[in-house]
Design goal:
Number of strands of chain A: 4
Largest interface: B-C, 61 and 88 residues
Order of helices and strands of chain A: HHHHHEHEEHHHHEHHH
Shape of chain A: globular
Distance between the termini of chain B: 20 Å
CATH topology of chain B: ABC transporter involved in vitamin B12 uptake, BtuC
Low-confidence stretches of chain B: 1-40, 354-358
Oligomer: heterotrimer
Largest sheet of chain A: 2 strands, antiparallel
Structural class of chain A: mainly alpha
Chain lengths: 326, 358, 499
């Protein structure tokens, strides 16, 4: 006996909740600027953006794409690392930086292609497919670096272009932030404005309906996972340029926060969809909280606890009034 | 006998044709009626042994190549090396049983590795502060229970997606661990630790026996009490469980709490094994997930099971140990684990698509 | 149960229906879809509270029923849905939640299985493969397990809701034997079925429902199935079906020698512009699979498909959509409309290229077209941005059709388009079908509702065991003839005596 009469209870969450994350961010800014005098200074804010936010933002943008398509990409960190590894190796081999960057992104595309094959080709759940990729990527890094030793670009021969990617500015704004802006606008246009974004939305929320409307479901998924890994590999290139080295497994540090940011970001949308502005707010919130806690004298360890609690509260906010997830 | 023949006697009004709605393509009547799941059963039957065969093949391979592989000492070593992973895997298995196999919406506990780290830190810190074994153990287990309870609360009462709720809890655990250890290795020495490192009956180290004991308790509970039956029903077909009058939330919450408790136990074992609480417990997360999912391959029904998880943990332990003995780079281990996960999931999802739900 | 009234929004599902069942009898309940049978049963199960009317058991009036209260009163339900854990064994599924009944003093799996086997043998005389999992069983076997489960609770009144829909004849015989035994033990059964021959065979009394009311109480031993059928059919139904006045034009879709073994083989037909071609067949006849293959969902393995005279390959839904083929799937809520999306997003989903410029979506154009479609199809909604979730079933179905109108599809494959919508919405959908035909669209309508097929189609094809067996002209055909062709593959001239 069908019970469809009984499930009319699904009500949209009150619109008030959409302001939860912006409000939390505002509150964080106000509280910390009162508690820590150095917090609301230009140099601190630029420092937070460059050091805490930029790389996390790029990885989170990649994550948002896959979350919007109804999945997750646990191997974003692997794409970061493989991008970094390919980039640094090519530079050490004496190739120009732009070719190295291209090879780095291609390494990301390769990682994405592997995921796409598993997810779109073999219909494996994204969570487990990308988990497998993560493991294989880990092995790959161990094998190429003799168990996880960093690979340094020799100090004497650092190309100027590499230093520019790592520390340069354009019009007074650090290059990393330009990159974040370009990627964010690009991803936002793709998800929110483009025809492809609509297809992603349909595939992510109602894959069956998408199929029954003639949409190329597999191709959409394949593209999303390739794009996600390619974007993540850009973060890998930035990291390497920053430290003139490839440090194995450094990408995984961004994984959990990027998932957190993408899901915190969904609370910004009336229909709880993954969206780029929300993700960026999530990244900012996490970045400013850890910076603020640092400035008021909490050590790194308590910052972890603080940001964990914060993610928890944000989730609570995002899920309150949501009754259709069970 | 075909399905239609029963209709032949029933010439009636036009409505006779209104048939039950099939979500999927209905199987052709002949196949459905004459071969009750035989072809599928045979294939599944083969796969049900694939996991065990793979384990035996690996053991045989190492036993032939390395004579010392099958000595009691080495077996004990494998067992104690697998103990922490195995105990955490058992915890995750419980969560998977009551949560169902859908990774995003179903049950998952990402906080287990964090619980392990926090529990180990609690144990070692209290030990350093001069507390006795009983107090240390009690506080450590209480820590695990508290983390489990927080997860349970978030998932059942607050209805946060398990993936996200346990992710946040994991961050909190990792932070608290750092607060306690200040990112240093906290040594620990206690009679209990010595006792755990001793060889017990059958020359097996006590740490390994704790894993076996935990498995035994869970396996017996799940098999010989209604709890097991109901827990699988809660995860496998929640509507059926609800229709049978089972309180779903109680089982889901219970699985997270017991998983947290097992995280506490794993913390004590890890301190005993390393004689210290060390950082880096977060690296355990993915192997734990791999273990619980690989465990499905050892189950006759391709579902998560505690026995399967135990075998999977030992399997991975034997793999790492054998490579070590063969002087093969341990760098391959992760890659092989990854490939195994993909193979298992590929096979089971293929089977699941074939074995259509009613 | 007396004078029950229940309204859902504008729909009056129950309109003063009464049902009186004598203790210790098997009572049949028959009626068309939408006659109110299932709502009546939901009231009895405590799932739906009636707006008016009362319920008595054993002469004592009862307050409003809850599922729990119904259970306490010993009312058990056997539904079409099989609520069994797929990865459980038969014994486990049977005793879930009442494990003590299967194995006292601890849970012994072997004991559960033996006891389950004993019960299945006793009630139905069948034995299932040892150690079989529910997912390995046929739907019929699962149904038997489900019925046995209900019997464990030792109920006083058992409601069977279409229990035989997926059973073989031997299993049906066992079920009827079991119902006979229940009756001998003084239990009361309420038996709902579309198969009047079954009703005739086991029921002591029959209540016929129509339009939310009980219209007749008959004794099946003295009243023939033909008479019961007449009582069930709503005479007003003829007004439901508007005839379109288009004359079929050039062939739009022609299929020859199409095969996808074992589902169907050697299917050939031609569908013309401005034509409504009906298609019907029982579960397993291959009609459903044929329709799916025409939309590229499970492509045919052999044969030729031509659209507008050009041979095409329909390898995926995308390929079908490119050929201007539209699909209205049966499972509307899962496959037809995207409940999580808004009206606008739903309606343009199949025609995004038409609403985008340089890869970006032109929302203004979208809104304009969607507003037009809402007006055109008279969809009751607050506007283009409204959530589809909030619409009624009929309006949701119109959204699906609007999606394909926006695509300017020329061939429409409709799979049970009126399942689960009320009579008024049905009439609107029929008018829509007629209008599509008048505008030159070619329509293939798969339906199990024979009145519907006779009412709206120009021709009707019948499939039986994977083959097209006959073609009928509605004006020269009765629903009984269609039914005969579906159940036996023959074109019976006079079906009154076949039973």
């Amino acid at each position: 006996m069908s019970l469809d009469i009984l499930d009319s209870r699904r009500t949209a969450a009150p619109d008030l909740l959409r302001f939860g994350v912006p409000l939390a961010l505002a509150l964080v800014l106000v509280v910390f600027s009162l508690l820590a005098p150095g917090f609301l200074t230009l140099s601190n804010i630029v420092g937070v953006l460059v050091n805490n936010v930029a790389l996390a933002a790029i990885v989170s943008i990649a994550m948002t794409l896959t979350v919007a398509s109804g999945g997750t990409d646990l191997s974003v960190g692997t794409a970061v690392d493989l991008g970094s590894l390919a980039f640094v190796s090519t530079i050490i081999a004496g190739q120009p930086v732009w070719i190295a960057a291209l090879i780095g992104v291609l390494a990301g595309v390769g990682t994405g292609l592997f995921n796409a094959l598993l997810i779109a080709g073999l219909s494996i759940t994204p969570f487990l497919a990308t988990l497998g990729t993560l493991f294989i990527g880990h092995s790959l890094q161990q094998l190429t670096t003799d168990g996880g030793n960093p690979v340094y670009v020799p100090t004497g021969s650092i190309p100027p272009a590499l230093a520019f990617i790592g520390h340069g500015s354009v019009l007074g704004v650090p290059l990393a932030l330009w990159l974040v802006a370009v990627l964010a606008i690009g991803a936002w246009l793709l998800l929110a404005k483009s025809r492809f974004g609509r297809e992603v939305l349909a595939v992510g929320t109602e894959p069956q309906v998408a199929l029954y409307s003639g949409l190329p479901v597999r191709a959409v998924l394949a593209f999303i996972y390739i794009a996600s890994a390619a974007i993540a590999s850009i973060a890998g290139i930035l990291i390497s340029a920053n430290v003139n080295a490839y440090v194995p497994y450094s990408g995984n540090a961004y994984l959990l926060n990027s998932i957190g940011a993408a899901f915190i970001g969904t609370s910004l949308s009336r229909t709880r969809r993954a969206n780029i502005p929300g993700t960026l707010l999530g990244v900012l919130l996490l970045g400013f909280v850890s910076n603020g806690l640092l400035l008021i004298g909490w050590n790194f360890y308590w910052q972890q606890v603080g940001s964990g609690l914060l993610i928890f509260l944000a989730l609570l906010l995002a899920f309150t009034g949501r009754r259709d997830t069970a | 006998m075909s399905l239609e023949s029963s209709f032949e006697s029933s010439l009636a009004a036009s409505q006779a044709l209104h048939l039950p709605r099939a979500g999927r393509q209905a199987p052709p009547p002949e196949a459905a009626a004459s071969a009750p799941g035989l072809s599928r059963g045979a294939l599944a039957g083969l796969l049900r042994f694939a996991g065990l065969l793979a384990l035996l093949a690996v053991v045989a391979f190492f036993a032939v190549r390395v004579p010392s592989f099958l000595t009691p000492g080495n077996i004990g070593l494998i067992l104690s090396q697998s103990a922490v992973l195995g105990i955490l895997g058992l915890g995750l298995t419980l969560v998977l049983i009551t949560g169902g196999s859908d990774v995003i919406r179903g049950g998952i506990d990402l906080s287990l590795a964090g619980t392990l780290g926090l529990a180990a830190a609690v144990f070692a810190t209290l030990n350093q502060a001069g507390y006795g074994d009983a107090a240390c153990v009690a506080a450590t287990l209480a820590t695990g229970l508290a983390v489990g309870a927080l997860n349970a609360l978030s998932v059942t009462w607050l209805r946060i997606l398990p993936l996200l709720a346990t992710l946040a809890v994991m961050n909190i655990c990792a932070g608290l661990e750092l607060v306690l250890t200040e990112n240093t290795t906290v040594p620990a020495a206690a009679p209990l630790i010595d006792a755990l490192n001793l060889a017990g009956p059958f020359d097996l180290p006590v740490i390994g026996l704790v894993l076996v004991a935990a498995w035994l308790v869970l396996a017996v509970t799940l098999r010989f009490t209604p709890v097991g039956l109901r827990a699988y029903a809660v995860g496998g077909h929640p509507e059926a469980a609800r229709a049978a009058g089972i309180a779903l939330n109680r089982y889901v919450a219970g699985s997270y709490i017991v998983a947290g408790l097992l995280g506490g136990v794993a913390g004590i074992l890890s301190v005993a094994f390393l004689n210290a609480a060390t950082s880096g417990s977060a690296d355990m997360l993915l192997p734990v997930i791999a273990t619980a999912f690989l465990g499905r391959m050892f189950s006759r029904r391709l579902v998560p099971s505690v026995t399967g998880t135990l075998l999977a943990a030992v399997f991975l332990g034997a793999l790492a140990n054998g490579f070590q003995l063969l002087h093969v780079s341990s760098y391959w281990v992760n890659g092989i684990e990854g490939a195994l996960i993909l193979a298992v999931v590929g096979v089971t999802s293929g089977l699941a698509q074939r074995g259509a739900r009613p | 149960m007396r004078g029950l009234v229940k309204t859902f929004g504008p729909t009056r599902a129950l309109d003063g229906a009464s049902l009186t069942v004598a203790p210790g009898t098997v009572h049949g309940l028959v009626g068309q879809n939408g006659a109110g049978k299932s709502t009546l049963i939901k009231v009895l199960a405590g799932l739906v509270a009636p707006d008016a009317g009362d319920i008595e058991v054993g002469g004592t009036p009862l307050g409003p029923l809850t599922p729990r209260r119904a259970e306490e009163l010993g009312i058990a339900f056997i539904h079409q849905d099989r609520l069994l854990v797929p990865t459980a064994t038969v014994g486990e599924a049977l005793f879930l939640g009442q494990e003590r009944l299967g194995s006292r003093h601890g849970l012994w799996r072997g004991r559960l299985e033996r006891r389950a086997a004993g019960l299945l043998d006793r009630f139905f005389g069948i034995s299932l493969p040892k150690g079989a999992l529910i997912q390995d069983l046929t739907t019929a076997q699962q149904q038997i397990v489900q019925i046995t489960r209900a019997l464990l609770a030792d109920p006083k009144i058992i409601v069977f809701d279409e229990p035989t829909a997926s059973l073989s004849r031997r299993e049906v015989d066992h079920l009827f034997d079991a119902i006979g035994q229940l009756k001998a033990h003084g239990l009361t059964s309420i038996y709902i079925s579309h198969y009047l021959a079954e009703i005739e065979r086991i029921c002591d009394a029959v209540t016929v429902m129509r339009n939310g009311r009980d219209v007749a109480h008959v004794d099946p031993r003295t009243t023939g199935t033909a008479e019961i059928t007449r009582l069930m059919v709503d005479r007003d139904v003829k007004d439901l079906f508007p005839r379109h006045n288009a004359t079929p034009g050039a062939p739009a879709l022609s299929v020859s020698g199409l095969a996808a073994p074992p589902a169907f083989r050697d299917v050939s037909f031609t569908l013309h512009r401005g034509e409504v071609l009906g298609l019907t067949g029982l579960l397993g006849s291959g009609a459903k699979e044929l329709v799916r293959s025409l939309f590229g969902l499970s492509p045919a393995r052999a044969g030729r498909i031509e659209v507008d005279g050009r041979p095409v390959r329909l390898g995926s839904p995308g390929a079908a959509v490119r050929q201007a083929i539209a699909m209205v799937p049966e499972d509307r809520r899962a496959q037809g409309v995207a409940l999580a999306l808004g009206m606008r997003e739903n309606m343009t989903l199949a025609s995004l290229p038409a609403f985008s410029r340089f890869g970006f979506i032109d929302r203004a154009r979208e809104r304009l077209r969607v507003s037009q479609l809402i007006d055109e199809l008279k969809i009751k909604t607050s506007g283009p941005e409204a959530a589809v979730r909030t619409l009624s079933g009929g309006n949701q179905q119109k959204v699906v059709i609007a999606k394909w109108l926006a695509r300017q599809s020329r061939i429409y494959v409709l799979d049970e388009p009126t399942v689960g919508v009320d009579v008024a919405a049905k009439a609107e959908i029929y008018r829509l079908i007629a209008r599509l035909a008048e505008q030159g669209a070619a329509i293939l309508l798969l339906s199990a509702d024979l009145d519907e097929l006779l009412g709206v189609s120009d021709r009707i094809l019948v499939m039986y065991r994977g083959e097209l067996v006959s073609e009928h002209i509605p004006s020269e055909t009765t629903s009984a003839q269609l039914l005969a062709a579906s159940v036996s593959g023959t074109r019976a001239e006079d079906t009154a005596h076949v039973a």
